[in-house]
Amino acid sequence: MGGALELRAMNGSDADLVAFRECFECNGTPRRLDVLRWQYADNPTHELVVHLAVSDERIAAIYAVQPGFVRVRGAVRLAAQSVDTLVDADFRGHGLFTKMAEAAYERVRELDGAFVYGFPNGNSAPGFFGKLRWRSLDPVPFLVRPLRTAFLASKLPLGRWLRRLPDLRVPIRGPELPASYELRPVTVLGPELDALWQRFATNVTVAVDRSAEYLRWRLTKTGEQYQCLGVFDQAQLVAFCAYTTVDKHGGRIGYVIELLHEPGAHEVGAALLVECLRRMAADGADAVLAWSFRHSPNAKAYSTGGFVTLPERLRPIELHFGVRPLDDSLSNVVGDRRNWYISYCDSDTV
Question: Are 26 and 62 in contact (CB under 8 A)?
């Protein structure tokens, strides 16, 4: 190990971003500079909460949270998602993870932040739920909609026998839109999307605030190609879906990034979802993944669209869901998974 360690906040300069990227590259997890700039420098809150441990101008450790606005019991508050954590192989065993995380959380508190949340992987989960005292909100509510039989068979325990069967498309069926409704691309994420989110979230207690400003940032993530489709009743947006299709997990996977619809309009939401499934299938998708709790406002739309819970043993990666309350008055609210709404919009990997 080199000289004395200095713990400091990242300043957002190009030099710091480059050093951030180099630290990840040296430890086998390369990151794109333009994605880091989008994620940290261009965040809608304009707050940067990244802590570094530096030794002789070399980054020894990183703990980064992504500030964002959230809805908590109808009020908009600041919170933060824990997204990037790394201790260089040469500097492990010195307690840097815990020290830097606590420093980041203190900064979020100074900004009147309500909580820190995230989706630790299997390797990092013990540190979050143990050393950092996160509350578990497991499991992550993975849903799947198979589109081809061969991909599904390859993931099952008896897949080697099932692979002998023909590779067939799984039929996509569901409700059709009323004739008075119009389906069209959503190219401008503006006030009508804001209004739809406000109506959709009427009974949502805790969620990232999916304002039009947030969605414009989130759905222009560097390196990703999202498609946005909407259902309109004359000029009013009544359902919205953002999705993408990528080569991942040994196949071509579709992801429903977000699905919003008028409260109670499950059939309309399902009809839009079915159309998006057809488009992802036409783009070669073998299966489509989504995140949705059973209590979520769009749960019935997913069920009607043929989505089912993805068993933990078949999940492509081990992910956990947890929260660290920073405002004691909200501990019971944010610590209860029944109060949360999440989707792949909350994921930092898709």
Answer: no
Domains of the chain, with CATH numbers? 6-136 (3.40.630.30), 142-318 (3.40.630.30)
CA–CA separation, 263 vs 251, rounded Å?
34
For 313-325, give the DSSP string.
GG-SS-B--EEEE
- Written as six digits, the tokens of 60 are 């020894």
pLDDT digits (tens, 9 = 90+) for 270-313: 999 999 999 999 999 999 999 999 999 999 999 999 999 999 88
Question: pLDDT-derived band of residue 57, with 50, 70 and 90 as boundaries?
Answer: confident
pLDDT tens digits for 99-136? Answer: 999 999 999 999 999 999 999 999 999 999 999 999 99
pLDDT of 63-93, one tens digit each? 999 999 999 999 999 999 999 999 998 898 8
**Gap between the Cα atoms of 163 and 4, Å rounded:** 57
Q: What are phi and psi of 48, to 5 degrees?
A: -115, 115
Q: Which of 67, 48, 51, 71 is nearest to 59 (CA)?
A: 51
Is 91 in contact with 66 (CB distance < 8 Å)? no
Q: With 80 as the cut, is the pLDDT of residue 255 above it?
A: yes
Q: What pLDDT digit, counting tens, does each position of 135-172 carry?
A: 999 999 999 999 998 877 776 665 555 556 678 899 99
Are 346 and 130 in contact by the 8 Å Cβ rule? The answer is no
SS3 (DSSP) at 171: coil
Q: By three-state DSSP, how is residue 350 classified?
A: coil
Cis peptide before 139, with omega less than 30 degrees from 0?
yes
* 62 and 84 Cβ atoms separated by less than 8 Å: yes
Q: Report whether 46 contacts 57 (CB < 8 A).
A: no
Q: How many CB atoms lie within 10 A of CB 178?
A: 11
Q: What are the distances in angstroms from CA 278 to CA 173, 254, 274?
A: 9, 11, 6
Spell out the residues 6+ positions from residue 233 whose beta carbon is closer than 8 angstroms to its own: 180, 181, 182
Q: Which helix (H) or strand (E) holds 75?
A: strand 75-87
8-state DSSP, 273: H
